[in-house]
Amino acid sequence: MDFNKTLTIWYSEHKRDLPWRKTKNPYHIWLSEIILQQTQIAQGLPYYDAFVSKYPTVFDLANAQEGEVLKLWQGLGYYSRARNLHTTAKHIANDLNGIFPNTYKDLLKLKGVGDYTASAIASICYGEPTAVVDGNVYRVLSRYFGIDTPINSTIGIKEFKALAASLMDHEHPSDYNQAIMEFGAVQCKPKNPYCHTCPLNESCVALQKNRIDQLPVKLNKTKVSTKYFNFLVLLSTDKKTIFQKRASKGIWQNLYQFPLLETDQKLKIADFKKHPFISAYFEDAAFDFSLYNNKDIVHKLSHQHLHTKFWIVEIDQLPQKGIPITEIKNHPTPILISNFIDEFF
């Protein structure tokens, strides 16, 4: 069976109608690829539309304030993508006169652009036959060829990249790359793939050997840690609160949050006022407090689970400079904080 031809024919009949498939503008393709990293299309599409609407060109994005970009990105997670997006936009606008690199090799030099994204842009925009390898491609190749090398191992990454390159359609690299990715997303899904209607089912090794649910293989490298977050939601009599920009490096860098007390275990109501951080933070000031959520709000990230409590603190005067409560929704925040704000205020 002609693997390439079968996929491209399937793609021409089944591809979804998506806005970035109607253009070869590298700015739009780059934007879509960054947004869709670790994000489903259904979730990412509204963000793509919002970014293209607010920042029609790379110059518009470059001239934006980082806070504005982070605010528009709010809810997508992995905020380093947004920071890298803004940094790269400024580089392209200011150093490259708004012109994107037009080769895989040069695209790799852009901050936030890795092998997959560089391959996608190079093939879709410039017709360079560079093979894309994302989660969908790993799944299709591992099942079709019956490969059980872990996809997140050093050997596996090299093996699948080499295989993908050997299968590349050099005459139609854009269609082929998009075809195999779409096939993995729509037909050869992670769970309950449509094997009975699959055009490759007669030669799929995983299907013949009943190994669909076993492939691809992935090493469990991520050790998930548990953290206990206690946010202090201060409310003064003049309707102000303390909302701080998180300066330390990490996933929430440059996002805003309420003052945070991180503890080794759950903080009980009886121990809240006695905690050294609380007594030092408020000194001798009188305040009333209550717990917003008796049950922890568990926010799951790839590497850690955050068990979160929001403590409502009513006080006459804030212990430090604050902002009007009405202004907090103007700042970029993690979705965990944003959800609380929407519910409480």
Automatic annotation (TrEMBL):
CDD domains from the UniProt entry: ENDO3c, NUDIX_DNA_Glycosylase_C-MutY
Known cofactor(s): [4Fe-4S] cluster
Enzyme Commission number, as recorded: 3.2.2.31
Catalytic activity of the protein: Hydrolyzes free adenine bases from 7,8-dihydro-8-oxoguanine:adenine mismatched double-stranded DNA, leaving an apurinic site
Domain HhH-GPD: 35-186
Xref: InterPro entries: A/G_AdeGlyc_MutY, DNA_glycosylase, HhH-GPD_domain, HhH_base_excis_C, HhH_motif, MIG/MutY, MutY_C, NUDIX_hydrolase-like_dom_sf
Assigned keywords, A-Z: 4Fe-4S, DNA damage, DNA repair, Glycosidase, Hydrolase, Iron, Iron-sulfur, Metal-binding
UniProt xrefs under SUPFAM superfamilies: DNA-glycosylase, Nudix
Keyword Ligase carried by entry: no
Any Pfam family matching the protein: HHH
Single Gene Ontology MF annotation: 4 iron, 4 sulfur cluster binding
Cofactor binding note of this UniProt entry: Binds 1 [4Fe-4S] cluster.
Biological process terms in GO annotation: base-excision repair; mismatch repair
Family: Belongs to the Nth/MutY family.
Function noted in UniProt: Adenine glycosylase active on G-A mispairs. MutY also corrects error-prone DNA synthesis past GO lesions which are due to the oxidatively damaged form of guanine: 7,8-dihydro-8-oxoguanine (8-oxo-dGTP).
Name under which the protein is recorded: Adenine DNA glycosylase
Organism expressing this protein natively: Gelidibacter salicanalis
